[in-house]
Structures are given as structure tokens and as C-alpha cells.
Write a structure and sequence with these properties.
Protein name: Zn(2)-C6 fungal-type domain-containing protein
Shape: globular
Number of helices: 22
Subcellular location: Nucleus
Distance between the termini: 50 Å
Strand order of the largest sheet: 1-2
Strand content: under 5%
Keywords: Nucleus
GO cellular component, one term: nucleus
InterPro entries: Fun_TF (IPR021858), Zn2-C6_fun-type_DNA-bd_sf (IPR036864), Zn2Cys6_DnaBD (IPR001138)
Number of domains: 2
Oligomer: single chain
Length: 485
């Protein structure tokens, strides 16, 4: 019953009629306006400036609410207003008073925001500016956004690390205070955006694994609360924004899946429901390749998380049946993928064939892990898979697809690199690729993977099975010293 009600959100017909009593923007677009003030549903859904007779233009948030708190932000008609054009609401704090904050804000707009999503995502993800609008309305989100800028800059200028900690600590402190005073509903747009920025900052530092886990899990719980609010029509969803958040939770969970001592307890059913409800813009043929983060069917990233979880369990707990079920799911997904991309990566729907080559790295990595977990792994077969995978890496050249903190190929490179232990030429290929990744996304998580691979390659023990070293033998011994300072 709940699922049917949720799916009605997606089937809601869009307004097509001209209005004479609605906002100026709906009249201009000849659309029917539902006259929700201060921001109507049409303007909220499309990220437009909502203006009414006798009022200034009002900024939009991703999802408009039935009842808005006082003090809405007033801006110019720009989707991404600059600090000079912003009139802050009386409930907020002008976080951009200092030159330092203004510099970090502009750096976010020009250098950080483009890397929050894939380079070939649908244009709406580049133009909507949800995080910028939210930060200009909520000082706590602005603190998190500035922390994100500072942590990105710290890769090139280490002194910005303290700046990042300062802004991030302020954001955490303010949010904790509001939670303690029970001022939050738990469905706010700015709150889930804050969590996204929080786990990005934590992944960059990568010195508190529990915080990464908590923030990813909290984002998953809020996603569920938002679904219930959509069902009760307390929120009107912006499909593109909801898609971005759900993909971010799934992607970042998969990126760190092999690095966490405990698996993240995100609800796969909640994330999957969100992805089903809120598809990316565009026609059916290119909808997946233009998604904001994943680029292919979400099933691949669900498989990454689940096979990682299974691999990190003790052999006595793992169970051969669970491994075989995952292998069957993977086989089905792989067959569909290969049918759609049977020309070696030249998918006509995807603007960059090298991205598809990168997805094939995931295929080799999952196959290597599953062949070990299902106890069908033979040394000669594994070596052939590693050689084939390194050939793909060679075809990709210096291509890197960054998602701000963790490059897309860090997870498969960790698996392939570990399996390559003892194959020196293949190890060198993986090492050079990780150096390319490090230059583009030098986060703590990437540094940890590089250190972890080095320790797998150098590990001296029984046998020469790099995957066994990664998954079990000496894992605690190689994990602890690899944590970046």
C-alpha cells in the first residue's frame, strides 16, 4: 500500500495550463501555478526564481514545503546568486562577511561543485545550484560548504586543513544544538545536504571511520523520512535533487566499502525505492548514462557493497550459498551490460567510452572477488583476469572521473591491485593509475588505498595471494598503520 502511494508521486501529471493569477514565472512559461507562496511548486521543481506581484524574487529550495519558516531568502533572479546580491534572512548569520569565507564560497562554485557530480551528467545537475541556494539560506549549511571547499584546497595548500576543521566543527556543533533542542523535523532539505557534505569532508580526512559510517546511515534514515513526507504530501519533490541525494549515498557507501571495519547499515530498500521513484531527466535511452553519479544501473553499486561486506566476513560466517546468490545476480547484470555495450565500450548513448571502460574494471574486480568467495578461484584464471583488467587500465590512459573525494576507480583498483600481487608488470600499471588518481583526488581515502595496496604487495606470509591478504591474512596488521595522519 505504501509503495503504491509512493509511486503516485512519480505519476502526478505536470500542469500544462496557462494561469492568470499565479506567479510571474508561471505566467511567462504559460504553466498553471498552484499559487503556493512564497515559492510555488513549479518554480521549486524547476529551480526557478519565483516572483509575485508586489514582491521581490524569492530563492528556491529543492523541495518546497506546505508551511515555510519565516525569513525566506530574497535574491536576484540568478539560480546561483553571488554573495554581493544576497540579502540574508533575519534568522540566519551572514557567513560571507570575511574575505576568507567569500574566497572559499567562490572556490566552491568554480572548483568544488563541478566535481560533486559526473562530468557527463544531465545539464540540470550543473545548473540547479541546490547546495548553493541552501547554504545562502542556512548558515549551518554554509559552514559545511565552506569546510568542503577548504578540505579540497588542503590537497594543494595544507594550511587549509585547519580552516576546514574550523568550519566543519561549527557546522557539527550548530546541528547538534538544534537536534538537542528538538527543532528539526528530520526531513529538511538543508539537513540532508549537510549530511552529504559531512560525509564528503569525513571521507577526505579519513581519520574517523565511525563518523563516515554514522553520516551515511543518517542520510539513509532521512531519505526514508522524506519518502513518508512525499506520501503525506508534506513535501513536493524535485526529482533531480532526490535522485542526486540517493545516488550520492549509494556511490559513497560503495566507494568505502572495503575500507570500513564495520559495514554501513544503510537501507538498500530505501535507496532503491528512491532511485525507482525519481529517475534522471532525459529520454529512456540515455537516462542512466546522464545520471548525476552512477552512470549505469544502480545494481552494480549495490553488488559492490554486498560483495565487499561478504568478503570482509570471516570464512565461517560468510556462507557459500550467499556468495553463489551474489554470483548469480552479478552474472545477470553483467550479461545485460555487455549486451548494451557489445562494441568494447563504444556505447552510442554514453558521451565518453572511457567511462564504460572504467565500468569494466568493476566487472573484473567483482569477478575476482566472487571467484574467491565461491571457492571457484583458480590461480591461472585469476592471473588472466588481472592481465585483462590492466589492459583496460592502459586503454583508459590518464582518464580520471572524480567524485570530489573518492575517484570512481579506487574500489576496483584496490581489488585488482591486490589480486595482482606477484605479477610485477600488472602491479606497476595499477601503481601508475593510482598516482593519476592521487593527483586528481588526493583525499585521505585515496591515500589509505595507496598505502593499503603497498602493504598488500609488501606483505610477507604464507602463499602469494594478495586478495587473501586484503580480506583476511594480516588485515588488521596492514590497516592500522595505513591510516593517514
Amino acid at each position: 500500500m505504501q509503495e503504491a502511494s509512493l509511486r503516485s508521486v512519480r505519476r502526478r501529471p505536470s500542469a500544462r495550463l496557462r494561469t492568470k493569477t499565479g506567479c510571474f514565472k508561471c505566467r511567462e512559461r504559460r504553466k498553471k501555478c498552484d499559487e503556493l507562496r512564497p515559492v510555488c511548486s513549479g518554480c521549486s521543481r524547476n529551480g526557478l526564481s519565483c516572483r509575485w506581484p508586489g514582491t521581490q524574487s524569492t530563492s528556491t529550495s529543492p523541495n518546497s514545503t506546505r508551511s515555510r519558516s519565516p525569513g525566506s531568502l530574497v535574491t536576484t533572479s540568478s539560480r546561483c546568486p553571488s554573495p554581493e546580491n544576497v540579502l540574508f534572512d533575519k534568522w540566519g548569520v551572514d557567513a560571507l562577511q570575511s574575505p576568507r569565507a567569500c574566497k572559499l564560497f567562490e572556490y566552491y562554485r568554480s572548483a568544488v561543485q563541478p566535481h560533486l557530480i559526473r562530468s557527463h551528467a544531465h545539464p540540470i545537475y550543473f545548473s540547479s545550484g541546490w547546495f548553493i541556494h541552501g547554504a545562502l539560506q542556512h548558515s549551518v549549511l554554509m559552514d559545511a560548504l565552506l569546510a568542503c571547499s577548504a578540505v579540497h584546497l588542503s590537497c594543494f595548500y595544507p594550511e587549509y586543513r585547519l580552516t576546514a576543521i574550523e568550519f566543519y566543527s561549527q557546522a557539527v556543533s550548530t546541528t547538534r544544538e538544534q537536534l538537542e533542542k528538538k527543532r528539526l523535523k528530520g526531513t529538511e532539505d538543508w539537513l540532508i545536504m549537510l549530511l552529504v557534505l559531512a560525509y564528503l569532508v569525513e571521507i577526505w580526512f579519513f581519520d574517523d571511520l565511525r563518523s563516515i559510517k554514522r553520516h551515511l546511515e543518517a542520510a539513509s534514515h532521512i531519505l526514508h523520512s522524506r519518502q513518508l513526507s512525499f506520501q503525506r504530501q508534506e513535501l513536493i519533490p524535485d526529482h533531480s535533487f532526490e535522485r542526486l541525494i540517493a545516488e550520492s549515498i549509494l556511490y559513497n557507501t560503495s566507494a568505502v566499502a572495503m575500507l570500513m571495519p564495520e559495514s554501513c547499515d544503510i537501507s538498500f530498500s530505501v535507496v532503491s525505492t528512491h532511485l525507482d521513484l525519481f529517475s534522471s531527466p532525459g529520454n529512456q535511452s540515455n537516462r542512466l548514462c546522464e545520471s548525476p553519479l552512477l552512470g549505469v544501473s544502480p545494481e552494480l553499486y549495490f553488488l559492490v557493497v554486498e560483495v565487499s561486506r561478504l568478503g570482509l566476513q570471516a570464512p565461517s560466517e560468510r556462507g557459500l550459498e550467499a556468495a553463489n546468490k551474489l554470483a548469480a545476480r552479478f552474472s545477470t547484470w553483467r550479461e545485460n551490460f555487455m549486451l548494451e555495450n557489445n562494441d568494447g565500450g563504444n556505447n552510442n548513448n554514453n558521451p565518453d567510452p572511457k567511462f564504460i571502460l572504467g565500468i569494466r574494471l568493476y566487472i573484473f574486480a567483482i569477478e575476482l572477488l566472487l571467484s574467491k568467495l565461491t571457492e571457484r578461484r583458480q590461480s591461472a584464471y585469476a592471473q588472466l583476469l588481472v592481465v585483462a583488467a590492466t589492459e583496460i587500465i592502459g586503454k583508459m590512459g590518464s582518464y580520471v572521473e572524480s567524485a570530489l573525494c573518492m575517484d570512481y576507480y579506487v574500489w576496483p583498483l584496490l581489488i585488482i591491485g591486490s589480486a595482482a600481487k606477484g605479477q610485477e608488470e600488472c602491479v606497476d600499471v595499477v601503481r601508475r593509475k593510482m598516482e593519476d588518481v592521487m593527483r586528481t583526488a588526493g583525499s585521505g581515502g585515496v591515500k589509505m588505498v595507496i598505502n593499503l595496496l603497498g602493504r598488500v604487495w609488501d606483505f610477507e606470509g604464507e602463499g602469494d595471494d594478495g586478495l587473501e591478504v586484503l580480506l583476511r591474512t594480516g588485515r588488521q596488521d596492514i590497516l592500522r598503520p595505513s591510516m593517514p595522519s
